[in-house]
């Protein structure tokens, strides 16, 4: 099936197309010169814009804008295996290096994708959105509007989403499941229904799947890319996969190589020249271990460890919060089942707003959390159990008890 990603020259903004089609002699010559130099060690390189040969032991050279080739290959295999893309029930084929662009974190991936698909348009953010989307959409010249994926019953509500899309004239949607901040996850049935919805309305969807593997409900990881590849572009991040946010490595995955290999090549070069090279090497090493396990049909050891620990922390945190009069909110009727976050309604003993609650908790030097208003969910607070050990959850319990008893 064809879709918007098969017509990029028609749908990308004119200024993006100018960057994409502008001749770039520096990388073009560098690519050819590099190939010749491999054959001829005495080939004279007069094209390189960095000091080389002074102290090779400390030199860290620019990498290709789209990322180191072995890492692109690894991400393509990792995505294919994690989401079973080669199964005819999904994509029906594997992805290759050309389907991957390495970026400076998911943050750069989002900025560039908003620039491509959100500029001058209304971009639909799910209620309960990562608040930094607002900045990315705004900086790329788009306008963020909030849409609801779920009904009050907690069911996926595509009729309601359709009304939001029509009323707010949305052209590009963002999905983030498992969701930061609510921990909401999709079922496979939900994913198929969303894909059909996108097709009916000829929409583009940016799928922020940084937490795809961090599910605690036993459900297999889901990538929306598998269901509507002609209009869904996915992104993820080593920050979340491997707990190394400071390495600043993210990636965009698309079934349409024109997007990842051509368009984003030019945009990344314009934006950051290349993603962090030592960071990419670090990720490659970690991902290679994961791939060995996936090829053997096993769950990667590190993921297993992270999921077990985070699952315990989440369960303990929910118990403590409920004990103190909070409840979990997000996808109604569903426990938070992924990510490192959960949203809690304000405790029944707190009569003021969410910002005041967080302010009071900080004022008491008791604990920190983020007001739900920041995510479009006023009246709630976001707790991270990524940063809370089981001991810290027990300490939270004691501090909430102390607060309650001070209130009398
Ligand atoms: C939903 C979501 N998307 C993207 C990011 C950005 O990740 P990165 O560190 O790769 O830029 C975050 C970081 O918290 C996030 O929660």
TrEMBL record:
This is Aminotransferase. Residues 61-396 form the Aminotransferase class I/classII large domain. InterPro entries: Aminotransferase_I/II_large, AspAT/PAT-like, NHTrfase_class1_PyrdxlP-BS, PyrdxlP-dep_Trfase, PyrdxlP-dep_Trfase_major, PyrdxlP-dep_Trfase_small. GO terms for biological process: amino acid metabolic process. Its cofactor is pyridoxal 5'-phosphate. Belongs to the class-I pyridoxal-phosphate-dependent aminotransferase family. It comes from Eiseniibacteriota bacterium. The keyword Transferase applies. CDD domains: AAT_like (cd00609). Keywords: Aminotransferase, Pyridoxal phosphate, Transferase. GO terms for molecular function: pyridoxal phosphate binding; transaminase activity. Its EC number is 2.6.1.-. It holds the Pfam family Aminotran_1_2.
């Amino acid at each position: 099936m064809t879709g918007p990603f098969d017509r990029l020259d028609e749908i990308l903004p004119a200024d993006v197309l100018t960057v994409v089609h502008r001749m770039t002699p520096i990388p073009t010559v560098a690519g050819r010169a590099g190939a010749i130099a491999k054959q001829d060690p005495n080939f004279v390189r007069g094209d390189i814009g960095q000091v080389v040969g002074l102290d090779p032991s400390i030199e860290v050279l620019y990498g290709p804008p789209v990322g180191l080739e072995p890492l692109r290959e690894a991400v393509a295999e990792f995505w294919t295996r994690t989401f079973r893309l080669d199964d005819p029930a999904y994509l029906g084929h594997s992805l290759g290096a050309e389907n991957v662009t390495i970026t400076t974190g998911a943050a750069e991936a989002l900025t560039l994708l908003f620039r491509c698909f959100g500029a001058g348009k209304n971009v639909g953010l799910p209620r309960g959105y990562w608040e930094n989307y607002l900045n990315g959409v705004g900086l790329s010249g788009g306008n963020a509007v909030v849409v609801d994926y779920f009904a009050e019953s907690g069911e996926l509500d595509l009729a309601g989403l359709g009304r939001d899309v029509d009323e707010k004239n949305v052209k590009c949607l963002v999905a983030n499941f498992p969701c930061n901040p609510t921990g909401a996850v999709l079922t496979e049935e939900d994913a198929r229904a969303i894909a059909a919805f996108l097709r009916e309305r000829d929409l583009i969807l940016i799928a922020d799947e940084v937490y795809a593997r961090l599910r605690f409900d036993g459900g297999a990881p889901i990538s929306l890319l598998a269901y509507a590849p002609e209009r869904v572009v996915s992104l993820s991040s080593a920050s979340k996969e491997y707990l190394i946010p400071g390495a600043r490595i993210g990636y965009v995955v698309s079934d349409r190589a024109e997007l990842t290999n051509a368009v984003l090549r030019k945009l990344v070069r314009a934006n950051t020249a290349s993603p962090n090279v030592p960071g990419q090497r670090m990720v490659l090493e970690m991902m290679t271990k994961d791939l060995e396990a996936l090829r053997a049909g096993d769950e990667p050891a590190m993921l297993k460890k992270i999921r077990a620990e985070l699952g315990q922390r989440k369960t303990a945190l929910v118990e403590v919060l409920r004990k103190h009069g909070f409840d979990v909110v997000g996808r109604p009727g569903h426990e938070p089942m992924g990510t490192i976050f959960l949203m809690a309604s304000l405790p029944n003993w707190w009569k003021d707003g969410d910002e005041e609650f967080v302010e009071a908790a900080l004022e008491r030097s008791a604990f920190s959390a983020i007001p739900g208003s920041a995510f479009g969910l006023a009246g709630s607070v976001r707790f991270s159990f990524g940063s809370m050990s089981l001991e810290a959850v027990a300490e939270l319990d004691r501090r909430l008890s102390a607060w309650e008893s001070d209130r009398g």
